[in-house]
Amino acid sequence: MFYEPHMLESIKRLEATRSERMGQQFPRLTADEKAALLKGFHPDYKAGTMRELAVGPNAGDRVPHELADLLEGHSRIDPDAVDLSRADFDVDILVIGGGGAGTSAAILAHQRGAKVLLATKLRLGDANTMMAQGGIQAADKPNDSPAIHYLDVMGGGGFQNVPELVRALTKDAPSAMKWLEELGAMFDKQSDGTMVSIHGGGTSRRRMHSARDYSGAEIMRTLRDEFRNQKIQHLEFASAVELVLDTKGQCAGAILYDMETGEYRLVRAKVVVLATGGMGRLHVQRFPCTNHYGATADGLVIGYRAGARMVFMDAVQYHPTGVAYPEQIVGQLVTEKVRGLGPSWSTTRAGASSSTSRPGTRSPRRSSASATSGETGSGRTRGWSACGWIRR
User: Fold this and answer.
1) How far is CA 227 from CA 1, 59, 129, 214, 354, in A?
2) Residues 121, 191: contact at Cβ < 8 Å?
3) Res. 115: pLDDT tops 70
4) What pLDDT, in 10s, does the model give residues 146-169?
5) Rounded to the nearest 5°, which phi and psi values hold at 95?
6) Is 149 a catalytic residue?
7) Residue 72 and residue 52: Cα distance in Å, rounded?
């Protein structure tokens, strides 16, 4: 690979400090230090990047401009042009989204006897699940427990999390891992057959399980095979453009747009599951992103139009480590698994301390991302700087 002169100089300065950094230890940030780091450098706190919504259940709440434009936008269809008396599909459960969450929901509902239809705007499995690299966390070791996992998650979220959701996540994680393995997912194992586990961001115990560096692809492969073996009905290239409400204001189905024929299809359902993923591909604040191209906030928009109130709309997750060179892959994710192995990161700008490991590479993403943003966004460091990883 070709390196420009300033890059080669940066690499030399990094190599010169390697022996010094090998023995460095950094204490954890205090709560006040974390708060100051976030307010000073996290992109969510940058002035002028959000605005108050003018309409809908969250009117008055601050959200990124890129999302507000969609939430306040007009529907692409004319309600008077849709005949709601004639449904193209009539099912018990409509699952919108063909990633890990949606496919799992469809499998479990089908196994319990429900008539299921899954609709996805791309192909089954074209989702962020497929893109995930580092691993999946579950407290299944003798020195760990769902209660400890719960505390780690609450602390990582600054105790602003919804406790009931965190409790469900941490309590169900071991059984979810067991279910995936029983379906055929091949996670990394020790020679005695026990799961390999490493640290992740914000973990006090080693609880991240992986399948090499393609953990999400392995999970999605397993779920997709099971889904197809169960012969569950599904529609590909069928984007949900609006939810349908009954006379009581409850969700009763959705209108799908067939991207191959250009036709609209009405699905009547007793239950609708929204599993459409996030909004990374809106490129909030013009950040590069390695989300799947389908992550464009579709579910957030149609849910909001149907009256659903959103939570944490002023918070965007930023990944703290990515590729800066070459330009063709700018923003390519450097997986959390790398940070979980215990490296340190450093800056090579002239006159600076060789290491910026506080808050540390195992800190929650929002702290690590804030530190990275503070170092690079302030202009103190060039757009490209050598980064040295030291496994501890």
Assistant:
1) 42, 39, 15, 20, 51
2) no
3) yes
4) 999 999 999 888 898 999 999 999
5) -105, 120
6) no
7) 11
| DSSP H or E segment with residue 160 | none
**Distance in angstroms (rounded) separating the CA atoms of residues 361 and 356:** 10
The amino acid that residue 93 corresponds to is I
Tokens of 300: 């957030």
Burial class (CB in 10 A: 0-12, 13-18, 19+), 232: buried
Q: Which residue has the tokens 């055929």?
A: 184
Q: Are 224 and 103 in contact (CB under 8 A)?
A: yes
Q: Give just the sign of the alpha carbon dihedral 250, 251, 253, 259.
A: positive
Strands 251-258 and 264-274, bridge-based pairing:
antiparallel
- pLDDT attached to residue 357: 42
- Please tell me which residue in 209, 281, 319, 366 is annotated as part of the active site: 319
Q: What token pair was written down for 13? A: 């300065």
More confident site: 38 or 73: 73
Q: b/e string for 328-338 if b means 16 or more Cβ within 10 A?
A: eeeeebbbbbb
The three-state secondary structure class of 98 is coil
Q: Which of 42, 209, 305, 339 is catalytic?
A: 339
Which residue did the predictor score with more confidence, 5 or 97? 97
Which of these, 372, 68, 122, lies nearest to 238 by C-alpha position? 122
> What burial class does residue 262 get, using C-beta atoms within 10 Å of its C-beta: 0-12 exposed, 13-18 middle, 19+ buried?
exposed
pLDDT at 19 exceeding the cut of 90: no
Token duo for residue 29: 């940030």
Torsion, Cα of 259, 260, 262, 268 (10° steps): -70
CA–CA distances in Å: residue 32 to residues 28, 361, 373: 11, 19, 18
292 is annotated as an active-site residue: no
| Residue of 361 and 223 predicted with greater confidence | 223
Beta-strand pair 238-245/251-258: antiparallel
Name 225's Cβ contacts closer than 8 Å, sequence gap at least 6: 183, 184
Site of tokens 């579709």: 298
Q: Strand ranges (DSSP E) for the chain? A: 50-52, 62-64, 89-96, 116-119, 136-137, 208-209, 233-235, 238-245, 251-258, 264-274
The phi, psi pair for 263, rounded to 5°, reads -100, 155
